[in-house]
Amino acid sequence: MSYTVEQLCSDGLKPAFGYLLPVVAGNTTITYGQIADALRRDLEIEGKVFPTHIGAVVGTLMERIHKAEPDAPLINVLVVNQQTGQPGVGADGFLREWFALDSKPLQPKRKGELVAKAARQVYAYPKWSQVFRKVFGTAAPTADPTTLIDGTEQDGVPPTPLGKRHGGPAESKEHKALKKYVLEHPAKVGAPSKLDRAMDELLLLSGDEVDVFFEKGQRVDLVEVKSIRSSEPDLIRGVYQCVKYRAVFKAQRFGTTPDMHVVTTLVVETEPAAYILDLAKLHGVRVKIVRVN
Fold it and tell me: Which of 8, 98, 106, 148 has the fewest other C-beta atoms within 10 Å?
């Protein structure tokens, strides 16, 4: 073995935290194997870095984070086993301490509940860049989730939003106005009025972008907006976009928040044709009429 675990826990903490920042922004997880491969590359280690050694790295990182910022949630729970989608046993002690539990072993169901709660706290925490600076004394690297999906493929058209950055059509003022209104009035589309998080233009790892995103506890609302300028084909596409968003988002949160309730809503400004409403109902997509323009 061309490295030691002690070396990884010393030299690997800063890059490992850097890998986690876009993962948080992307509402997803990263595997032990992915971090192992990235550390092998960035630390220029010859040969394989074993994923089983990465638990020590993220555990040490979490200890350093709590030394600098005790109130920072458990970002280490986003590092998971590829097969189970769950963090390993090394996270159990952190979970027990964070949630003030006794030292009894965590049963799988209970651990899953705690991981889900901790992960939601991590995704909602707004100060990760500041925590990075506190821990390492330097500015944090980019937290842009597009770094997780930007590739080199040349033989296909980049999906939204990558297409936008390559000269795609500009967003209309009507679409912007409707999206802004929905973001500021979640109850108008049936979302909870008091939220843990609300944002527009949520990037999914499929390259798609959700117009508006709301999160409250175990509920997530993914909203696709179609303004007054949208035609019937646009509305049909909107229904299927909602179906895709739901599937991709659930896949991204596999393991960490498996019991999450994902609600998809198509927001329109005019009454859709009956067959479009039937299509939406068939696929579990809600349709809300919100007139802004």
Answer: 148
| pLDDT per position as a tens digit, 123-137 | 999 999 999 999 999
Q: What is the pLDDT of residues 204-250, one digit of tens each?
A: 999 999 999 999 999 999 999 999 999 999 999 999 999 999 999 99
Where are the alpha helices (H) located in 89-227, listed in sequence order? 92-98, 108-124, 128-136, 173-184
82 plus 199 within the same structural domain: no
In a domain, 152, yes or no: no
Tell me which residue of 174, 232, 179 sits closest to 201, measured CA to CA.
179
Q: Which residue has the higher pLDDT, 259 or 230?
A: 230
Total domains present in the chain = 2
pTM of the model: 0.84
Tell whether the torsion through CA atoms of 76, 81, 85 and 86 is positive or negative. Answer: negative
| 128 lies in the same domain as 229 | no
Residue 266's H or E segment, with its range, is strand 261-268
In whole angstroms, what is the distance from residue 33 CA to residue 2 CA?
Answer: 17
Domain contains 277:
yes
